[in-house]
Design goal:
It is built from 13 helices and 29 strands. By secondary structure, it is of the alpha+beta class. It is globular and about 70 Å long.
Amino acid sequence: MFRSPFRGVLDVCVTALWGCLAAVLFLAAFAAPFVVGLRIASADETSATDKLRILYSTRFTFTDDGLPLVTVEIMGNRKDVRMRAKGGIVVRPDGQGGSTVESDGGEAWTITAEHTRPAVIHDWTIVDTLTPDDAPGVAAALTRWKERGYEPRSFEIGTMFGVNGAVIDTREVRIAIDPVAKGKGSARATEIAKRFGVRTSVHQELVRRPAGTIVAKSGATTIRNPSVLWFTPKRGTETITVADVPVGTGGSQLATSTEDRRYWGAVYVTLDHDGSLIAANAVPEDKLLAGLVPAEMYPDAPASALEAQAIAARTELLQKIGRRNLTDPFLLCSTQQCQVYAGAGKEDPRTTRAVEKTRGLVLLREGGGMVDIRYSASCGGHSEDNDAIWGGNPDPSLRGRVDHSKGGMTRVTDANLGAFLDADDGAWCEEKSKPGKLGKGRFRWTESMRAQDLDARIAAEFPEIGRVTALVPKQRGVSGRIGVLAIKGDKGVIEVAGDLRIRRLLGGLKSSLFEVKRQGESWVFRGAGFGHGVGMCQMGAMGMASAGKTYTQILGHYYRGTHLHRLY
């Protein structure tokens, strides 16, 4: 058993010894501004290979202040990365504990790569998912697929850690078969699903990391190092500014605009899958959340709504570690797929207070484990079941319910949908309950589309059905959101499944909770809500807060069978 030397770090390490060692070495590599009196083997005694392996580790550690240290993508797919810091930047070729270099050319550095080699990634088809304590189930699944002629493998994802007497376990075991080259896994998974009648998805395995030399230049100073370089502000109270970060895309060069962004903590530059550059930020959880929460909820929302959002964001962040970006040299991406993160300078005093007031609080299931946090802008008066939107197993914490101060319909159907849409008074997410104009046009909305435009959209994907003659909901969830939509044409009929796919196909509707009618040469959609409607309704949280509800009451309303726990 490994005992951490740090205050607030894991009380008990419950993963493999290498995972514990990796966590401590990771902290040594990245947490220089946050760790005092570090007493382990110095970083220069760690091989370059081990240092690079740590970047790809899903293990999870804490700073000396007792806060989780998280690595977040800044941008990827870059030919060069430029950064600067007031007072200068310290470059650490060997990480904390090794040599440091300061430029004689000023405050700015330009980083490029040379002699690069891309990664090798395999796509596996996931055919079963089990809990890590179900050893008989794992063994049976491996045997079953071996008897079918495959060489199955098990992959464990997620992480497990103990803090202040609580053990948090987000692990799962994936049974996977038939590896193929990256990009071909989706087609193969679909093929296997049809053949065996099972639900499948894709797991990516990093077979070989990308390789090359990272080159950093500032004035007459040039530094070359294999695969990675770390950068910290010379002044510990300053931030590092990274230039030309794509806006709204998590680093993709397809962005239409860029901006310079500041980051707390350390920034490191390493190699992307194709041998281009990735920049990432190693940042304590409080600094990260202070930048995240204002992007998730209006900072002028009522205080208890912001506090509920801070707890939800913290739970979501910790729950995702080790379950996303498994082939990347960071724990979380910075897009909506993970959590939208725009660095320092985006903080607001009100949201920062919410993060500080709720320090360490996360939402746990009554049966153990963190809640799979989901939230959307507005549920429109009724939230939705998780399985109705994304399939999979029903989650007891994510059950749809009426979101109304006076109660109301327990299930929205074709028969009562019109009455539901007409009843626009008293819902927690109704606009009248919000300060200012928050949520305007999200509770109830009407959109129209010319028939010829809808025909063109449908024909682009389903040319065989001809002109659209009817749109018929075939399946609705408990909130009335459409799960399967029949599109009838003068030449045929097709059925489209999936909340997001339906919304996009019909021109980007705010939600799939709608009724549709043909009026002359147009289709008119009358609907409710903005987003998928699962979990916390953010506009509803604001309404509850305005009515005097606490963050505990708000979270208890949207996530049933849960309780709050302070991890640190």
